[in-house]
Design brief:
Structural class: mainly alpha
Distance between the termini: 72 Å
Oligomer: single chain
Largest sheet: none
Order of helices and strands: HHHHHHHHHHH
Radius of gyration: 30 Å
Strand content: under 5%
Helix content: 40-55%
C-alpha cells in the first residue's frame, strides 16, 4: 500500500487536526500504533511539524470525513504523480555550474585525449560543437578557460569518469591508468593510525595504574610527580 511522503509529519497533522483513531492513522501512514501514541502524547524522540496531506494531494477531506464517521474505515491515499525518470539525452547541469563546463571539458581533453567527444558530452552534458571548439581552441572564451577536474567542479562523479576512461582505453587498446599517487600516503596514514591506537591503549593502562599517560603534555604536575 502506498504511504505518504512524510509519514511521521503526516501522522502528527492527523492527530492534531482530525478525530481519526490511532489505528486508522497508523494504517494510513504505515507506522506502528505506539508511534502514533507517542506523537499524540508529545513523547516522540523529535518534535514534528505537521504536514497537511490534503494540501499535499495525498488525501481528500471527503476521505477524512469518511474515516471520522466510521472508525473501521481504511483511508485511501490519492495516487501521487508518476516518478519522472531520466531519459537519454544531455545531462542536466544547474545554472550555477554551467560556466564551469568549459574548464571541465578542457581538463578531460588534456588528461584523457582518448575519450571521444560523445563520451565527454554524456559526462558533462554539453554539445559536440562546444567540445570541438575547445579542442581546436576556437572557443569564444578560450583565453579564460582553465582546465579543472570535472569531478571537483561537481559536473560528474568519479565513478562515471573512471568508467568513461576505462571504456575509452579499452576501445583504443590501451591499459587503463591506475592512480598510484596516494599509495605511499595511504600506507603512512595507516601506520600512523595504528601507532595512535596502540598509544591510546598504553595511555589507558597508565591512567588505570595511576600514572600520567606517556603522550600527555609535560606539566609541572606530571613532570615532578616522580
Amino acid at each position: 500500500m502506498a504511504q505518504p511522503l512524510m509519514p511521521h509529519a503526516t501522522a502528527s497533522w492527523l492527530v492534531d487536526n482530525t478525530s481519526l483513531s490511532f489505528e486508522q492513522i497508523a494504517e494510513f501512514c504505515g507506522l506502528h500504533i505506539l508511534e502514533i501514541q507517542a506523537i499524540a502524547d508529545d513523547t516522540a524522540a523529535t518534535k514534528l511539524t505537521g504536514r497537511d496531506p490534503v494540501r499535499a494531494h495525498e488525501l481528500t477531506q471527503e476521505e477524512i470525513d469518511k474515516g471520522q464517521a466510521d472508525p473501521e474505515y481504511s483511508l485511501k491515499i490519492l495516487k501521487g504523480p508518476e516518478q519522472v525518470r531520466r531519459t537519454k539525452g544531455p545531462r542536466y547541469t544547474p545554472v550555477s555550474k554551467r560556466s564551469d563546463k568549459p574548464d571541465g571539458i578542457a581538463w578531460i581533453i588534456r588528461n584523457h585525449p582518448e575519450i571521444t567527444d560523445g563520451a565527454i558530452g554524456n559526462l558533462i552534458g554539453t554539445t559536440r560543437t562546444t567540445i570541438a571548439a575547445i579542442r581546436d581552441r576556437s572557443h569564444w572564451n578560450i583565453a579564460n578557460i582553465t582546465p579543472k577536474d570535472p569531478v571537483t567542479l561537481g559536473l560528474t562523479t568519479q565513478r562515471e569518469l573512471d568508467a568513461a576512461v576505462a571504456k575509452a582505453a579499452k576501445a583504443a587498446g590501451l591499459e587503463a591508468p591506475v592512480d598510484t599517487r596516494l599509495e605511499g600516503d595511504r600506507e603512512a596514514l595507516i601506520t600512523e593510525l595504528r601507532a595512535q591506537r596502540a598509544q591510546a591503549v598504553l595511555d589507558a593502562e597508565a591512567v588505570e595504574a595511576g600514572e600520567a599517560p606517556a603522550s600527555a603534555e609535560p606539566t609541572a604536575e606530571n613532570l615532578f610527580k616522580r
